[in-house]
Amino acid sequence: MAPTRITACSVRDVRFPTSLEKDGSDAMNKAPDYSCAYVVFSTDSDLQGHGITFTVGKGNEIVCHATEVLSKMVVGQELKVIYGNFGLFWRSLTSEDQMRWLGPEKGVMHLAVAALTNALWDLWAKIERKPLWKLLVDMEPEQLVSAIDFRYMHDVLTPQEAVEQELLEKGYPCYTTSCGWLGYEDEKIKRLCKEALAQGFTRFKAKVGADLKDDQRRCRLLREMIGPDNVLMVDANQRWEVQEAIDWMKGLADCNITWIEEPTSPDDILGHQQIAKALKPLGIGVATGEACQNRIMFKQFLAAGAMQFCQIDSCRLGGVSENVAVILMANKFGVPVCPHGGGVGLCELVQHLSMFDFVSVSGSMENRMTEYLDHLHQHFKYPCVVKGGRYTPPQAPGYSIDMKESSLADYEWPKGRAWQELIANGTYTLD
Ligand SMILES: C[C@H](O)[C@@H](O)[C@@H](O)[C@H](O)C(=O)O
Ligand SMILES: [Mg+2]
């Protein structure tokens, strides 16, 4: 029987001790523990909607609580109300009269919106027995448009302009960041580069920002390992001042860098514009978006020419609904969308968004590539599959985010088996 309403919501604080191996380390996040607020919507059938938002450890409990509070606006709702005009329902979550003050549409509350929205899209795709990208691709333009909140976007994109339908069925190009974490030793970088090249990767990203000489050495090592023709990007994770970013990147220009990611504060639109202008003669673009809080900020970045690569994050923006809005806006400005995947479950999610972008909006793979990390996929029932450096289109119904029950049990903070062992042996403490 098809579900008719949301009957309950569970939110679990799930964390992975990735900081122990420096997986995910960068100039600003030296020891991240990849974590998520894991949402499960139950319905009056056996179908469930699973969703996440991503954090790097401490504070995940705050996001979980915000998600629990906001979920009260979803539990009990009829699905025909939610999906009948998803854009309006999404706006009800972002604009609740009192909770709006905690944003609006940014920060912890927006992460909570993301987790709930992703779970609702997962449920919708399961009801239709389609992978999410296929659910999006098969929608009539009007239905897709009704799923988006176009508020604050009408000056650059109106609903009737949105969505071009194109159909292309093939893998989607990706790049790997798993060779270039800041906390890795050279020998590990060399080994991982060789493995990635053997797997068919031709696009690589490295972390920079802590020490210029070390960055020059590591980028030259990577360039030597991957060869002159493969693609290399770097990511500073918001580390520099504007002029510092320009000077630093001039110091790395001999490594033939395609983009500098998050060179300065993720809120500094004019700063990114200045960096982009200064680095353009060197052929280095600016990429940002993983910490860009909502579609209104993306609108400013796009309109100001402050980003040459639009890195939407599936869990930072208000879930699929707002991701689609930004994909449509980026297409209007001719800026390629290269989604951020640097976190637990993010690769499983963003592959759907890129495939939707490719077959229904941009119709192009030129200058487009989606991030891939080789971490934690074993915890998912339907992990993303990458072959020859390209994501293969998911086939299972849903948003690919269902985590194995054993992983949820083992890594739920702090009572899970894995955490109990790490706390017992003194590797972690509860505070
Ligand atoms: C703390 C995280 O691992 C970040 O370093 C990661 O998301 C990174 O910015 C990326 O682009 O993959
Ligand atoms: Mg990044």
* Molecular shape: globular
| Multimeric state | single chain
Low-confidence stretches: 163-169
Structural class: alpha/beta
Termini distance? Answer: 45 Å
Q: Mean pLDDT, nearest integer? A: 94
Approximately how much beta-strand content do the residues carry?
5-15%
Rg estimate, integer Å: 21 Å
The helix fraction, in percent, is: 25-40%
Our count of helices gives: 15
Q: Which strand order do you get reading across the main beta sheet?
A: 5-6-7-8-9
Domain Mandelate racemase/muconate lactonizing enzyme C-terminal: 186-282
Protein name: Mitochondrial enolase superfamily member 1
Pfam families: MR_MLE_C, MR_MLE_N
GO molecular function: L-fuconate dehydratase activity; metal ion binding
Short description:
With 431 residues, this protein is α/β, with parallel strands linked by helices. The protein is 38% helix and 14% strand.
Question: What would you note in describing this structure?
Answer:
It catalyses: L-fuconate = 2-dehydro-3-deoxy-L-fuconate + H2O. Residues 186-282 form the Mandelate racemase/muconate lactonizing enzyme C-terminal domain. Pfam families: MR_MLE_C (PF13378), MR_MLE_N (PF02746). InterPro entries: Enolase-like_C_sf (IPR036849), Enolase-like_N (IPR029017), Enolase_C-like (IPR029065), L-fuconate_dehydratase (IPR034610), Mandel_Rmase/mucon_lact_enz_CS (IPR018110), Mandelate_racemase_C (IPR013342), Mandelate_racemase_N_dom (IPR013341), RHMD-like (IPR046945). Its cofactor is Mg(2+). There is one protein chain. By secondary structure, the chain is α/β, with parallel strands linked by helices. Helices cover 38% and strands 14% of the residues. The chain has a 5-stranded parallel sheet, covered by helices on one side. A 4-stranded mixed sheet has the order 10-4-12-11, with helices on one face. Helix 5 packs parallel to helix 13 (346-362) and helix 7 (186-198) runs parallel beside helix 8. Magnesium ion (MG) binds at residues 235, 237, 261-262, 290, 340, 342.
